[in-house]
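Example 3.2
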Amino acid sequence: MNGVICIYKEKGYTSFDVVAMMRRFCGTKKIGHGGTLDPMAEGVLPIFVGNATKAVDYCPNNTKEYRAGIRFGVTTDTQDFTGKVLSTCETPVPRNMQYKLVERFTGELMQTPPMYSAVQVDGQRLYELARKGIEIAREPRPVRIYSLTFEHFDDFSAVMTVSCSRGTYIRTLIHDMGVEVGTGAIMTSLERTRSGNFTLRDCYKIGEIREASEKGGKDAVEKLLMPIDIIFNSLPAARLSEQQTRMFMNGVVLDIDRVNLDREQGPYRILSAGGKIIAIGNRGENGDLAVVQRFYAMPEREKKPAGAASAAASRPDDMVINEEAPNGLKDLSELKGLKMT
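Structure, written as tokens:
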């Protein structure tokens, strides 16, 4: 079973809870997700199944969109309503302050991860330290707010929609807004409305997946999966002939000028002769089709009579699942060793 399915994570579940349930429904441990949502949050959670887990780190679009509730005049140790109250303020926030906040918090920002987060420092999760009452210094990290608008704004509350880069903590963004207005602020609700190319309309609730599983087992669940190709549809294609597919699947480095390219500039989704995505690649420094990530296992080298074809070469569209299932999304431009042209 291979593919992608979007789950609408409901309040009260952790992202790992969803992964654990999907492992049962799909009958495989090879499942990852496309970005953690806190238990209090809800919304779009892409789930990657089987060989699709290899694609988690290589999604070309990792923009996230959120709708968040804000309460001015309060601060907590978690930066949301679930934490211990640290301070309160009865001063109302002028409504024209929303325009200053939009200007101040749109664009490139440096954001300090909250103590209640899964960020690791010296091998320890920050939330593990926070639960022990320990606070340590954290290095600010660059994030980008692509757009920020307020749907509602009054003396003590607001609702905003945010489009941002991966790794952005919305509750920290709200906390920093509270510092800016001088009253403090906490997050009261959070819904992820988009993750990369996936939106709310792509989502199933866990109850719907459970019902499909109970009625039709794994086969019924598999019918709900989207193909891995959908993740990379925005990338230009490098289309291989049958001969090139056999060579590529056996580890032969291809001359990129002999490959049928949608455009000169990569990165590319590399398609087999059968039209299936088998790898992500780019133009190499030596004029080769350089591989960033393969979505199949390299065939074992065996001693065999000259002229004998390997089984792997005769089935160019077969894909074998990798044992690794990394989580978290990255930009292709951030990959080590990948030279963008």
